Structures are given as structure tokens and as C-alpha cells.
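cache lookup: miss for this entity combination. No prior model stored, computing from scratch. Input as submitted by user K.M.:
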Amino acid sequence: MTTARVRAVFVETWGCQMNELDGRRLVGLLLHEGYREALSAEEADLVLLNTCSVRDKAEQKVYDRLGRLALMKRERPGMVIGVCGCVAQQEGEHLLKRAPYVDFVLGTGRIEALPTVLRRVDEEGDRPVEIGFDLDEVAYSPGSIAHALPYRAAITVIEGCNKSCTFCVVPLTRGRERSRRLSDVVAEAKDLVEDGVVEVELLGQTVNAYRDPDSGKGLSDLLVEIGRLPGLRRLRFVTSHPRNFDDRLIQAMAETRTACRTLHLPVQSGSDRVLGRMKRQYTREDYVGLVNRLRRAMPELALSTDVVVGFPGEGENEFAETLSLLQEIQFSNVFSFTYSPRPHTAAARWERDVPPRLASERLARLMDLQQDIQRTINNGLVGSRLEVLVDGLDRKGGRLSGRSACNRVVNFDGTGARVGDFVDVLVEKGLPNSLSGRLLGTPLDKSAAESLDCQRGDGCREV
Ligand code: SF4
């Protein structure tokens, strides 16, 4: 009797946390179908490119990668190539025409159809294009996600976006907002925590627009329900839109012991004129007012943001307003990019009046300023004790590394800690992008760590 060879899948993912999670969903669905996960495209029978189209030249990068896979496929004609994610959603049929060696295209709203699509490829020689969205459902099977880590997991709570920011392709690639049932999300979180997950991150393009389709309950209710699950230590959510952040959510965050004192709140620009052209639906004053309310409720809150530099209509004055906003808010981290027109967006039809070179210069100025801000903030943490969840070794491979509850990277000296442990670290040095310190004592066991009297919520205590 011959044993059938187990087919191997390799998923290559670009982009945000939602794409990362989608990548694990793709793997999980195939593990259920009897595949194994390969470590590289070279050893895989099926290669899935899980693509992102948020940044410039995304499609080009996909076609470049596909070109290299095509050479591989020439050597191994049985190899199957699928394109998934946002570029798949955006390009659809066009992808098959332009890349004849691609076997199928699977959009962001059709992940669950992967096994069926593969059967059509294998058994019918079809080249399916599965794109589009169910109007009000999120097709999502929590049981078939191959989470990458045993102690940390993400959960999608809402898909899509109903905003129409003029630079953004997400409403096209992810569709309209669809929220999952609150009871389903809580049950998923409970299962994960019972399996040993201690840190849960709730995901959505506009996660704070979440609404339970049955009861209308919002993200604040989800935080409260999930936040009290026994065994859960850290609860995060991303990405929030300032317009959807109400006082109930601030209160729920402040009162939920496990809700980390960290928040990603994209501002995009400090200029009202630019914010208006972006259709962000808030002013600088609205944003600053929200940050003030958040900090009144949670003084230790670490805020991060996104900024687009060189958006059409951004003159030197508007850019200066963005710099002054960074000074005013003192973000702990800023993800900044030069503007690049995305296909099918409103802003892509506008004149590009900020030359790319000028935009790059502005970006460099902004990053310099932000590095100074971060150095100052991180220096202020010297002498603090942080509770760190260990992720492994630092980039150089010589020291242990992990994240504090306030989402800072902490590299530290010490022995005896393992990946997934909570440890107490004394911060000895603040760098612009990380903290450096040393391990205090042995790893905290769960019960000891849970009993820490953590006044600041982010695990920071003065020594
Ligand atoms: S709110 Fe975010 S995801 Fe939605 S359109 Fe604006 S930038 Fe894109």
C-alpha cells in the first residue's frame, strides 16, 4: 500500500495585523485539509501570496514576486500559486490575465472558500476568481486558525470600513463594515485563554466602530466581557478611528484591569485643511480634546499614531502644524509615510502638488523630531519596573526581548526566562525605539503576577 504524500503550503504575508491573522486563517484551513506548513516557497506544493495594497507599488511588488514563483513553477509544473489579500481583491480577474501561471485569486472576504477553490483547481482544472463580500456577515471559523504563538493571539471582531478617507483603498479591498456576534467573539477569546493565551488583541480596520449585530453592543461591552476572563492578562485593540471613540469606551478601557494602557489612534495630519481634504471627519481640536479626555482617565496611556506626509494640498504651513501636533501630543510611537496615490481613491485623481522629493525631506524632518520625542519619553522610564512578556532574543541575538503592557520593546540581560514568561525588568536605559534593562529575580508565575498591585495598569512601578 502506498501512502499519499502530504502536500505542503507556504503562505507569504505582507501588511497589517489583519493580514497576518488572515495568513494564519489560510494556513489553519489547509491544515484541516491535511496539508502541512512549509517554511519556504521552494519546498511547497501550494504557495499563497497574502498581499497588501495600502502602500505604493504594492501591485508591482506582487507581480515581481509572482515572476520569481513562475520560474519555480516551470521547474515544478505541479506547483499551485494563489494570490489572496487586498491586491487580489483589488485586481481580481486582471491578475489572471497578467500572470497566466497564477491558478486562482481569492479576495479578503472569501478566505473560507479556500478549500473549495482548491478543489476546483485540482479536480476541474479551473482558475477561479473568488472576490466580493457577504453584505452583513463575517465568514470566520475560529477553530481553524493556526495561531503562530501559544501565548498571544488576535481576534477579528469587525471587517471592512464605512469611512471614505480620500487616500485609502481599504473600503474597496475590505468592503463595508461587518461585525461578528459578540457572543462568538467572547467564546473565541475564552477558548484561546483556556488554551493558554494570555494576551489578546481585537482587530478591525475601524475596531471601535464594532457593533454586535444582535444587540447593538459596542467595543466597550466587548472589552468588559473579554477583559474579565480568568487567566487573561493583556487585552489590546487596533485600529481605532478618532471619530468613533466615545466616553463609554474611554471608561470601559480605564475600568478594565486587563486593558493595556496603550492605544493606536491614527491622526494622519495636524492641519485642519489637510484633514478636511482627507475626509477624516475630525479637526485637530477634536483630536487633541479626545487625547486630553483619554489622558485624564488614564494618565499613563502610551499613544501611537499614523501620519501621512506630502498629501495633496500640504504646504509648508500645514506640515509645520503636523510637527507642532507631534510636539503637543508626545506620541510614544509614530508610523509615518509619504503619500502615495492608491488606485480607485479620490485623492489619486488630484494634482500631486507636493513633489516626492519634498515629501521625503519632510518625512525625514518629522522622523528626526519624533526620534527626539521618543528618546525623551523613554529616558523618563529609566528606573521603572516593567512587566515584560518575553518574545525571544533581540535582533542581535544576544539578549532577551519582549514587550511591556504599554507595548514598548524591552531588551534585557538575565537568564532563566523563557518565551511566553512574564518577567519583571528594571529599565536602565531609554533608546528612541526600545528600552534596555535587566531582569529582576526569576520569572513571575501567573498567580504572583496577577496579584501585582499594578496601579498604573501598564505594569510600570517605580522602584
Ligand atoms: S478609516 Fe481607516 S480604513 Fe477606513 S477609509 Fe479611513 S484610513 Fe481607510
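stored under new cache key. The domain at 8-130 is CATH 3.40.50.12160 (Rossmann fold).
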